[in-house]
Design brief:
alpha+beta, Double-stranded beta-helix, 20 strands, globular
Length: 309
């Protein structure tokens, strides 16, 4: 095969690292099929030595159609390419939180993308443009492995339940999972996203669903965006959801990618959680992301009257 595949460092349950991939070969059907199959099998792929806009878009097209991020639609400002989302922290305009007493920019808690929308993109590829001197790791958790490790009693309790999700710009307002102590600043882009019409109404997603290609079950909750279990918007439901999320985001299930300048990272958004660990206040971090279109067709607008919004 036209590239080398190795495990993620220190991670034996998901993910792989690809080296020696010739960009010219990604138009070849056999290479494309192998790369797609690895994505479904592994959930996360780290590409080494391929940090280029055209290659990023070309790779994205193997896994689906690259699309403009929904929260960027209608926002008129220059971009490297219309399918590229520019995820940036600079001190004068970036999200800034206090976490464990440290001021940290570019922090994002555990989540999957577009959990607050009915249609969830299938994946994304992240590319480093400017890396900080320290910090800036991206974390990944496999929700298939997390489901497999659930106690049997929890598997039985959560089958058939649905979770209400809504858009939250300020991570300190999250009801579940890890939260910063204080929000010091929100970026201009986040402020614009808060007013976007697509995020006004809560949605629901099944707490467990089955990956079609493998028949494996997936814990399907975004801790940052989760509001409640539909029909159990009470103390009992919150306790159950908190227990599942606390199990899901255990540190021993996570891989944290230490970025290098020639890296691109692909993930399956229908399977993986991810987070951004953040950088010290004086650092800069600029990333470029493609959004790979798709719809697992299990999301729905909220039906119940109480969304705890």
């Amino acid at each position: 095969m036209a590239f080398t595949v190795q495990p993620l460092p220190g991670c034996d349950t998901f993910g792989c690292v690809i080296t020696d991939l010739d960009p010219a070969s990604i138009t070849e059907p056999a290479v494309r099929k192998r790369l797609y199959d690895l994505w479904i099998e592994k959930g996360v792929i780290v590409f080494k030595g391929l940090a280029d806009l055209d290659v990023q878009i070309g790779l994205s097209e193997i896994y689906g159609e690259p699309e403009e991020h929904p929260l960027l639609v209608g926002i008129d400002r220059p971009r490297e390419h219309y399918v590229i989302a520019e995820i940036e922290y600079v001190e004068e305009d970036g999200d800034l939180y206090e976490i464990n007493g440290e001021e940290r920019g570019a922090y994002l808690p555990w989540h999957f993308d577009l959990a607050y929308m009915v249609k969830i993109n299938h994946g994304g590829i992240l590319r480093a443009a400017v890396l900080p001197g320290r910090g800036g790791e991206t974390g990944f958790i496999d929700r298939i492995a997390a489901y497999d490790a659930l106690p049997e009693r929890l598997k039985q309790r959560i089958e058939g339940l649905r979770v209400i999700h809504r858009y939250l710009a300020d991570a300190t307002e999250a009801r579940f999972g890890e939260r910063p102590e204080k929000c010091l600043q929100l970026s201009r882009n986040i402020s614009l996203a808060m007013e976007h019409p697509s995020v006004k109404n809560p949605v629901t997603h099944p707490l467990v669903y089955t990956q079609k290609e493998s028949g494996r079950k997936v814990i399907n909750v975004s801790p940052w965006h989760a509001v409640a279990i539909e029909g159990m918007e009470n103390v009992e439901g919150d306790a159950l959801l908190a227990e599942v999320i606390d199990h899901l985001i255990r540190s021993e299930l996570a891989y944290f990618h230490q970025w290098q300048a020639d890296d691109m990272v692909l993930w399956d958004n229908w399977r993986m959680l991810h987070c951004a660990c953040g950088v010290p206040r004086g650092e800069q971090r600029k990333m470029r992301r493609t959004t790979i279109a798709g719809d697992y067709a299990l999301g729905a607008r909220l039906i119940s009257a109480d969304a705890n919004a």
